[in-house]
Amino acid sequence: MANNQLGVLNALDAAKTQWYHFTAIVIAGMGFFTDAYDLFGISLITKLLGRIYYTNENHPKPGTLPPNVAAAVNGTAFVGTLAGQLFFGWLGDKLGRKRVYGLTLMLMVVCSIASGLSFGKSPAGVMTTLCFFRFWLGFGIGGDYPLSATIMSEYANKKTRGAFIAAVFAMQGFGILTGGIIALIVSASFDHAYKAPPYSVNRKDSTAPEADYIWRIILMFGAVPALLTYYWRMKMPETARYTALVARNAKQAAADMSKVLQVELETEEEKVETASSSNSFGLFTKEFARRHGLHLLGTSVCWFLLDIAYYSNNLFQKDIFTAIGWLPKAETMNAIHEVYRVAASQSLIALCGTIPGYWFTVALIDYIGRFTIQLMGFFFMTVFMFALAIPYHHWLSNNAGFLIMYSLTFFFANFGPNATTFVVPAEIFPARLRSTCHGISAAAGKLGAIVGALGFLYAAQSTNPAETDQGYPPGIGVKNTLLVLGSINCLGIFFTLLVPESKGKSLEELTGENEEADGNDKQQASSTQTLPV
User: Fold this and answer.
1) Most-buried pick from 18, 299, 407, 409 (CB within 10 A)?
2) For the chain, what is the radius of gyration of the CA atoms?
3) What PROSITE patterns does the annotation carry (predicted)?
């Protein structure tokens, strides 16, 4: 146990699970619900956008987004998210977690609505406006990553901290599922109200004019859950760890946490001064590199590798389902019914693979540890990717088997590195750099998402030029793309060895922030250990 632990931090570490823990999970988690809805919801409507704005009635197949437009629509939100993670991560350490927490949420609300109101006299105008608003939507979403993770980490007790942070992140699963459900409801309603023939029967009438409302409604609904939690975000006090260790205001930290924990806490100004003066190195210092350089490399690279595979799979499920024949060919459906079929398939994967994986992590992370879950997740993602790719042609005649195996890749992504890469950076870095380092790690992940989104867009195209989507050059095919993704997951296994185990330790034990200046050597040795304890 650390020898100079502040009483207010001791109280937080030892607190039993209380109502305020669940309140914090919901408040922070609804941000991630919105994040997932907005980021992954675009995959539900890209086929519809292609039909509405890029159909050539002289062509035997309905329109698809041109390669540069598809790359922009899929990628701009990720570029914004990457920028937001770096900016708000830094700002959260400079100004405090709470002061910028509401700003990210309002940015998401405004830009979700604005995305649905995208306008223009031409298809290029509409897509440009959409990409503009999705960049700023991503910027707000990016801020939610480091701030939500850090706030939950600093509020939680050390016994169940991993489960609480993972529960915030697990709200992503419900966001993905809700996106599919909203798309199902909206498309089914419009399909019932506005009957249209398949494209192969009547090319002009297969896309009802009213279909333009569908994608707008789906995007704008993303503002609702974020708006509902804005008031409660503003009511949350600043975390005691920021107030005491960064702002150095022990009196305010004790007062805030006395209200939260409903106990009287002693003000300990002298301990705050000792902890702050003995542990004040910056991000770009040799001391940080010595203590945490390998940790930051490990968290960043693991998140980068994970997101290449995870976002490739998530954003292009519809293309994989079409390739294996689970989704009917586009020309056999009208535009609105195609949205319904895409939403149904993605909802099924979310329900069977994505959501269970998240909650397995929540249940087990504080028992078997972050390191074990991440290592196991990368291993099984590799196994199932190769199991899909190597006998790929067998799966073309066995759709049910393919879907089971494909769902398992999502299950072990979420009962694995997709959750732990979010949890660990919120635990292992000092309070004054915690939000910044989490933002850097998350930004590396979004760089991977950009690589995955753009790379898969081209790589998964058929090797036969006659079978590629309009405007795309031949790619390496779905089979070879899955082999590449499996190899990337395999790399994640090795970089996981750089990430320390944080199970069962207080944040200050992990970072040495509560150590006296003359007792730091022992703590530094333990805080820089890179293998699980």
Assistant:
1) 299
2) 24
3) MFS
Q: 35: closest CA among 216, 168, 184?
A: 168
Distance between CA atoms of residues 398 and 393, nearest Å:
9
Buried b (16+ CB within 10 A) or exposed e, 36-60: bbbbbbbbbbbbbbbbbbbbeeeee
Residue the block writes with tokens 């941000």: 31
496, 75, 473, 48: which is closest to 300 by C-alpha? 496
Task: Using CA atoms of 480, 485, 490, 493 in order, give the dihedral in degrees to the nearest 10.
Answer: 180
Q: Report d(CA 135, CA 445) in Å as an integer.
A: 17
- Whole-prediction pTM: 0.88
Per-residue pLDDT of the chain in tens (533 residues, 90 and over written 9): 445 667 777 888 888 888 888 888 998 898 889 999 998 889 899 999 999 999 988 888 898 898 889 889 988 999 999 999 999 999 999 999 988 988 999 999 999 999 999 988 899 999 999 999 999 999 999 999 999 999 999 989 889 999 999 999 999 999 999 999 999 999 999 999 999 999 999 988 899 999 999 999 999 999 998 888 888 888 888 888 888 888 888 788 888 788 777 777 666 665 655 555 556 788 999 999 999 999 999 999 999 999 998 888 776 676 677 767 778 888 999 999 999 999 998 898 888 888 999 999 999 999 999 999 999 999 999 999 999 889 888 877 777 788 888 888 989 999 999 999 999 999 999 999 999 999 999 999 999 999 988 887 788 777 888 777 777 788 888 888 889 999 999 999 999 999 999 998 888 888 877 654 344 444 443 444 433 33
265, 8 Cβ separation under 8 angstroms:
yes
| 371: nearest Cα among 500, 183, 258 | 500
Q: How far apart are the C-alpha atoms of 138 and 41, rounded to whole Å?
A: 13
* Backbone torsions φ then ψ of 99, nearest 5 degrees: -65, -30
> Quick one: which of 440, 437, 436, 442 has its CA closest to 422?
442
Please give the Cα distance from 428 to 109 (Å, whole number).
Answer: 31
